[in-house]
Design a protein that fits this description.
mainly alpha; MetI-like fold; 14 helices; flat
């Protein structure tokens, strides 16, 4: 009788262990299935995000007859005629130079002025700082279409219409609010004890900023520079309204490819690819700083 009881207990324990093993296996299978599902979803999302850009790249190398072929084909004889017609025979080579002349200085000016302003808001007590900071934000909240007509009148009277200086000024003004807002957050995350320790060692405020605080904020500066470059490089409204011949940028020049004889889709695609390349190269080249900058302050200890 005792042996029979012990045998039942052994059988019960064996079934209990088997159930626990089956439960753990089920959890493992569910976890693996979830990871596989997430991975497949991410792959599909990236695939559908990349398809439009790949289609534009392919279209930029197609002849006109290949662009309008139905059904569309992926196998064709590539040509550089669209790039040649747009940037060599056409005016887009000069538009590209105009974009560089306008966007690079405006980015440098925005980063320089915005970084110093954000540092002042972060480290010093300024009279009415909340109102001033809100004022900077409101300049970004205002839709550009609201101010473009007054700016057109002002620029015309000040001889800034269709000039590099006028476009650099307007890009700098509208990017400045974003830089101040972002960089203040980065400076707030840097311990103020660094400034106090540097002051005890005899460093001036300016030397402390350049030698200690600014290197720590470098990821944030790279992120702000990328945002500033993207907004300036892709800006269309101001370039369309405030320029005519001398300071036309790449985005503002694309509508000229829509003519009464039709739209030059191959050249449109070629210009779109060239517009995308600088931002893509900048993002890939500084991706480490971008990752650090976008996650700066996300985890607080």
């Amino acid at each position: 009788m005792g042996f029979h009881t012990e045998n039942k207990s052994f059988t019960f324990n064996r079934h209990e262990k088997a159930n626990e093993t089956g439960t753990w296996r089920g959890k493992i299978y569910l976890a693996l299935a979830a990871k596989v599902g997430i991975a497949l979803g991410a792959v599909l999302l990236v695939f559908f995000e990349i398809i439009p850009f790949l289609w534009i790249v392919l279209m930029s190398f197609k002849k006109k007859i290949d662009i309008f072929e139905l059904p569309p084909t992926l196998i064709f004889s590539p040509t550089l005629d669209n790039y040649y017609n747009a940037f060599v025979d056409g005016p887009f080579g000069q538009y590209l130079i105009n974009s560089l002349i306008i966007d690079l200085p405006s980015t440098v000016l925005s980063i320089s002025a915005g970084t110093l302003t954000a540092y002042a808001f972060s480290r010093f007590k300024i009279f009415g700082e909340k109102h001033l900071f809100f004022y900077f934000l409101t300049t970004r909240m205002c839709p550009p279409i609201v101010v473009v007509l007054p700016l057109f009148v002002m620029f015309s009277k000040m001889n800034l219409y269709d000039t590099y200086l006028g476009m650099i000024f307007i890009h700098t003004v509208f990017n400045l609010a974003l830089i101040v807002w972002l960089m203040k957050g980065f400076f707030d995350e840097i311990p103020v004890e660094i400034n106090q320790a540097a002051a005890l060692d005899g460093y001036s405020e300016w030397a402390t900023f350049l030698k200690f605080v600014l290197p720590l904020a470098r990821p944030g500066i790279v992120v702000c520079a990328l945002f500033c470059l993207v907004f300036s490089w892709n800006e269309f409204l101001f370039a369309q309204v405030l320029t005519q011949f001398n300071a036309v940028t790449l985005p503002a020049g694309i509508p000229s490819l829509v003519t009464s004889r039709g739209t030059y889709w191959g050249q449109v695609a070629a210009v779109a690819v060239v517009i995308t390349l600088p931002v893509f190269i900048f993002s890939v080249g500084f991706h480490k700083y971008l990752i650090r900058g976008l996650t700066f302050g996300a985890v607080k200890t």
